[in-house]
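Hi everyone,

Forwarding the result from last night's run.
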Amino acid sequence: MANFNTNGFGLAVETPARVTGVINLLSLDPGAYPRTVTLEVIDNSGNVVDTQTVSIDNTGAYVLRTYARGNNFRVSANGTRWLRRISAPINIDRDGVGGVNFSLPNGDVNADAIVDGNDVNVVLANFGSEAPFPNAAIEAADVNGDTIVDGNDVNIILANFGGED
């Protein structure tokens, strides 16, 4: 059953359900927030039925508003330099669903869905660079967002080496 409101003209308008939770952006400097994360609602056939980009602060709390309804939906979360994670199946009803939480591993500098030697090479090529960064490629090498490309960034990539979406 859908949840309807009126739109001021007496016509019924469905209210989007809220999917809420917390996104933990692993290995991110506390001063590097806010960050954006792309959320997708995926149906049981694997089709993306809704996509939204949300901004999260250091609490990681998010709200996704969707018109998707039913059982066996999944939500995926992905951010720049973080590997994508997909939730367990959830039931989205008119009241929404909470507790859809994610922990995203850091280190996918080149956004190819795997933390590998290519990511290490980008960081090493920009080792010692400090903010303000002259371009997005060098900024991406600052994996933890602390405004300098250093050994901490290399360590994060090595800790997540081999991880993939």
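The first helix runs from residue 117 to 125.

Cheers,
N.
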